[in-house]
Amino acid sequence: MIYTVECNFADAASEAEWNAFYSLEKLPALISVTGFHTSQRFRAITDGCPAYLAIHTVYGLDVLTGDEYRRKGGGNFARWQQHITDWHRNLYSDIGPAPAVQTGERLALCSLGPAPLIDMGLKPLAMHAVALDRCPASRWLAVLPAHDARQFAHPPEGVDLYTPMGDQLTSARRRAPEDKRERN
Questions:
Q1: pLDDT given for residue 152 in this prediction
Q2: DSSP 119-134
Q3: What are phi and psi of 177, to 5 degrees?
Q4: Three-class secondary structure of residue 103 per DSSP
Q5: Beta bridge partners of 92
Q6: 134 backbone dihedrals φ, ψ, rounded to 5°
Q7: How many CB atoms lie within 10 A of CB 97?
Q8: Which of 46, 130, 132, 169 has the most neighbouring CB atoms within 10 Å?
């Protein structure tokens, strides 16, 4: 399942420090939670959407409601919480692992349907909200290759573009928690 966290940050004076905390402390702590498979942060390069986006691959809603998730910082932003605005969390249907977006590539998201992404020559993955805010109810995700990024500096209406803020982190765990039991 795909877990997304979106927000804006309202204090320019501490934004760089918050970003360092989020990328260097919070994401590594989250990826160590049993049931997290991948995590990557993004910054919006289009207007009209939250400035920050984190996309995680998780094994299910129970991962996000568990004690381990809360102990390792899930659901809060420590001393920066007061500056977090426009905060949204969604759990989307399983599309497999979230695609890793490399330097120079862009993550494209659209809640209007797949057509704008298809018109850009992309192959969108459909995600449907199943828990948490459930808004937007459906979203399409695609990776814009680096060689096309300049061509779509101004994407079609309804398409939000994000640049990666670092590499995708991947858990050392390869199987879902319930699959760890020995098989006879």
A1: 87
A2: HTT---EEEEEEEET-
A3: -50, -40
A4: coil
A5: 2, 129
A6: 55, 35
A7: 12
A8: 169
Tell me what pLDDT residue 76 has: 75
Strand pairing class (84-92; 106-110): unpaired
Closest of 96, 164, 150, 156 to residue 120, by C-alpha: 156
Q: What is the pLDDT of residue 181?
A: 37
Is residue 177 classed exposed, middle or buried when 0-12, 13-18 and 19+ CB atoms within 10 A define those classes? middle
DSSP label at residue 35: T
Tokens in use for 152? 């779509």
Is-contact 31 69, C-beta < 8 A? no
Q: How many residues does the chain have?
A: 184
Question: 103-143: per-residue pLDDT in tens?
Answer: 999 999 999 999 999 999 999 999 999 999 999 999 999 99
Prior bond to 136 cis, omega within 30?
yes
- Helix (H) or strand (E) holding 15, with range, is helix 15-21
0.85 cut: is pTM over it?
A: yes
Q: What is the pLDDT, as a whole number, of residue 173?
A: 62
What's residue 154's pLDDT? Answer: 86
As given in the structure block, the two tokens for residue 106 are 């862009």
For the chain, which residues score pLDDT lower than 70?
Answer: 173-184
Phi/psi of residue 27, nearest 5 degrees: -60, -45
Whether the CB-CB separation of 59 and 176 falls below 8 Å is answered with yes
* Confidence at residue 176, expressed as pLDDT on a 0 to 100 scale: 47
